[in-house]
């Protein structure tokens, strides 16, 4: 069964889909020197706005664009969902854990509040008399609250149980019922998307590090091919710019000092970026029946794992090679049939060398290669989804986006140095993630 793409929603540091594509072809970059956190030094970041974006806000924006682009009307009760995020609600959880205090002090704050409440409850019961005190014993656990001091409520307006404007103490400790904590579980972004479109179909929330976007699309294709649904919305969204994420990658030595230069001889490391891309996937039969425009089809995918190292690829490359070969086989294509490779291209020393060797080994010498992370930054789990969108735009416009940030190629591949026209029938997008996650997907022009 053919599965086709009928709608794309994308937001990156370059802007929404059409703006991102035009700026990408023009060789522009959304990377700037920023630092939204006072305790950290300025560094290159690819922010969508002037401050870190909220995950739910980003999901809703990209989702709305995808649905509108596909010319669909809500609700979509039978639509499947496969939306991933490798970092999830980490920004919200970091705020809950600490704003200038350790996790231990947060726990102590919770304990102190509970102790005060118990004392107040005891006094009230004594005043009401023995009978009411006995009746009230079974209710003293009826509601407990976390209370952490913030300059403002840490929760997005859409999730907060109390409208901010109605809060009697907007700059005081923000009460959050225990039940509200579940809104920050990793899969709740996908659940929010399902609610937004009125779907009661299957909801998946893959997490596969930087391969999350491709894993999500693959799972959605499976949902359609196995008959669980005829339509699904899939992709990944990431809001990864948080103090812990920046500090962690900095300690690893993975971050660049000046910019992102994939496959360049003088590459420095990656630059964190915000963004996401979601796709409306449909069976070709459904799409044609409703007269939908079609960007292309998902011909096949391959997914493997190195089972080797937490943050380095298996230098032998066997599992990564297997993922690409699996992808080509499922697509009924040979390597010579691929016209364009959207590489993972993080601009780290090890990843780029590993990926360049893989491309040299598996594909013909003249295949065009590009990485767009020099323009969008590395959006982690969403990076593969952005890559798929750019592959589909390449097929639609028969144009290849440049390898942004490249000054002096470090490998002998046919890198796209400037935007150029080309015949693009089949494009492959590659993603490689921490833990040894390998993913490849082929996008093809409509038959």
Rounded radius of gyration (Å):
24 Å
Helix content: 25-40%
What is the overall number of helices?
13
The computed structural class is alpha/beta
Termini separation: 12 Å
Level-2 CATH architecture of the largest domain: 3-Layer(aba) Sandwich
Average the pLDDT over all residues and give the rounded result: 88
Query: What top-tier CATH class of the largest domain fits best?
Result: Alpha Beta
- How large a portion of the residues is in β-strands, by DSSP E? 15-25%
Unreliable stretches, pLDDT < 50, 5 or more residues? 100-111, 137-163
Oligomer category: single chain
Overall shape: it is globular
CATH level-3 fold name of the largest domain: Peroxisomal Thiolase, Chain A, domain 1
Task: Tell me the name of the CATH homologous superfamily of the largest domain.
Answer: Thiolase/Chalcone synthase
Largest sheet: 12 strands, mixed
Q: Can you characterise this structure?
A:
With 447 residues, the chain is α/β, with parallel strands linked by helices. The chain has two domains: 3-89 and 186-444, Thiolase/Chalcone synthase (Peroxisomal Thiolase, Chain A, domain 1); 95-132 and 144-179, no CATH class. The chain has helices at 17-25, 55-69, 90-97, 103-128, 130-136, 188-197, 212-225, 243-252, 284-289, 318-331, 349-362, 373-376, 383-397; strands spanning 3-12, 15-16, 32-34, 43-45, 80-84, 145-148, 174-177, 203-204, 231-238, 275-283, 296-305, 340-342, 368-370, 399-400, 414-415, 420-421, 426-433, 437-444. Strands 1, 2, 5, 8, 9, 10, 11, 12, 13, 15, 17 and 18 form a twelve-stranded mixed beta sheet that branches. β12, α11 (349-362) and β13 form a beta-alpha-beta unit. The longest helix is centred in the first third of the chain and has 26 residues, at 103-128. The two termini are 12 Å apart. Mean pLDDT is 88; it is low at 100-111 and 137-163. This is Beta-ketoacyl-acyl-carrier-protein synthase I. One of its GO terms (molecular function) is 3-oxoacyl-[acyl-carrier-protein] synthase activity.
């Amino acid at each position: 069964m053919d599965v086709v793409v009928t709608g794309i929603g994308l937001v990156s540091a370059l802007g929404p889909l059409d703006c991102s594509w035009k700026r990408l072809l023009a060789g522009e970059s959304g990377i700037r020197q920023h630092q939204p956190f006072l305790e950290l030094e300025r560094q290159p970041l690819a922010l969508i706005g002037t401050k870190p974006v909220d995950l739910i806000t980003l999901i809703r924006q990209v989702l709305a664009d995808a649905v509108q682009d596909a010319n669909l009307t809500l609700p979509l009760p039978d639509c499947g969902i496969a939306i991933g995020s490798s970092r999830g609600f980490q920004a919200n959880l970091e705020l809950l854990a600490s704003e200038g205090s350790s996790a231990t002090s947060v726990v102590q704050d919770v304990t102190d509040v509970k102790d005060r409440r118990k004392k107040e409850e005891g006094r009230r019961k004594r005043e009401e008399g023995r009978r009411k005190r006995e009746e009230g014993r079974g209710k003293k656990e009826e509601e407990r609250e976390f209370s952490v001091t913030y300059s403002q409520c840490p929760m997005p307006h859409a999730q907060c149980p109390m409208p901010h404007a109605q809060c009697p103490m907007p700059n005081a400790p923000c009460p959050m019922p225990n039940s509200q904590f579940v809104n920050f579980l990793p899969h709740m972004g996908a659940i929010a998307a399902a609610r937004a479109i009125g779907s009661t179909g299957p909801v998946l929330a893959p997490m596969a590090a930087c391969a999350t976007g491709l894993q999500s699309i693959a799972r959605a294709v499976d949902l359609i091919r196995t008959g669980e649904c005829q339509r699904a919305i899939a992709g990944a969204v990431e809001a990864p710019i948080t103090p812990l994420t920046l500090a962690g990658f900095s300690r690893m030595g993975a971050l660049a000092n000046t910019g992102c230069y994939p496959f360049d001889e003088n590459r420095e490391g990656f630059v964190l970026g915000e963004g996401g891309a979601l796709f409306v996937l449909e069976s070709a039969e459904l799409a044609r029946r409703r007269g939908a425009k079609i960007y292309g089809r998902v011909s096949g995918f391959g997914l493997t794992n190195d089972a080797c190292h937490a943050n380095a690829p298996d230098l032998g490359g066997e599992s990564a090679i297997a993922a690409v070969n699996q992808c080509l086989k499922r697509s009924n294509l040979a390597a010579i049939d691929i016209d364009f490779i959207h590489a993972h291209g993080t601009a780290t020393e090890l990843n780029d060398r590993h990926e360049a060797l893989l491309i040299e080994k598996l594909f013909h010498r003249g295949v065009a290669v590009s990485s767009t992370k020099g323009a969008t930054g590395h959006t982690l789990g969403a990076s593969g989804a952005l890559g798929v969108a750019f592959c589909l735009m390449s097929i639609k416009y028969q144009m290849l986006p440049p390898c942004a940030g490249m000054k002096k190629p470090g490998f002998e591949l046919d890198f796209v140095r400037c935007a150029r026209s080309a015949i693009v029938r089949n494009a492959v997008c590659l993603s490689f993630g921490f833990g040894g996650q390998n993913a490849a997907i082929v996008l093809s022009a409509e038959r």
